[in-house]
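Many introductory courses stop at the sequence. We go one step further.
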Amino acid sequence: MSESIIKIQHLTKTFGSGAGSVHALEDISLDIQQGEIFGIIGLSGAGKSTLVRCMNLLERPTSGKVLINGTDMTGLGEKDLRLARRDVTMIFQSFNLLMQRTCLKNVCFPMELCGAPREQSRRRAAELLDLVGLGDKADAYPAQLSGGQKQRVAIARALAAEPKVLLCDEATSALDPTTTASILGLLKDLNQKLGVTVVVITHQMSVIEEICSRVAILDGGVVAECGRVAEIFSNPSTDAARCLVYPGGVRAEQVPPSARAVRVSFNGGTVYQPLIASLAIDCGVKVNILGADTRSIDGHAYGTMLLSLPDDLNDAARALSYIRSQPNVTAEEVEYHA
């Protein structure tokens, strides 16, 4: 595995003091590897945006450390911190472009702040606009662009300082699904071409499964789970993870009071549907699908189905045994709770 480029050690962030204080983050520890695309996900209020702002010290942690390339950002003075932040740039949901500047001049802006020569900045900005597919929009203004084009300009601007880390705070939340897919494809392409580490902060599991290799799930300001995306999809071990991975709600509450049911988890095989057909053909047992939340990641099946077992105890036992004998499948009986 690559070396860690970001190390977050026992980070805590509290807003306010006394009885009115709010603990936004509690004892967060994460390692993000050089060159990976790492996801941070949670529901609204989980602490995602606070965490990403602590990564580049836009919010100063109450306690704990943030190390970028081995440098403790929390120990830097303001001058050194400004220099260190060049390695860690951000893109936002709202794009944050300067409306009175052309696309080219928006991308030039961070280089101007660093004192780069004007012509050098313009050449570099033109190259970056080409890189994000907007070479023909150099003289256009943000008001003339679509949402996806604005985000591409924002990405080009974020890359102007040649950062080692690109932080994406809900960067696709304001975009339609097709535009979201194109922006995620661009981020993946930039990660591969430039080697830039990408940290994606989102509330959308579809974004995580599309481009991230690993993910941390935040819940109430703490890390509920952290690991490879495929592993968490196949076996979420906390309520917070299950809520995000299976938002369709394959829950015990869906089971009628008199029914026996089984929750079937698909853990990286290649198909979902033949299981139900095979159960009927091989065992002569029919089951009802009460709920399902399944998806394909890299050609492998992940997710769950909630199945109603037959009333006959022998049929139910044969069905359960057959399901459990299948590769890359686990099954557990679900009890109804009124």
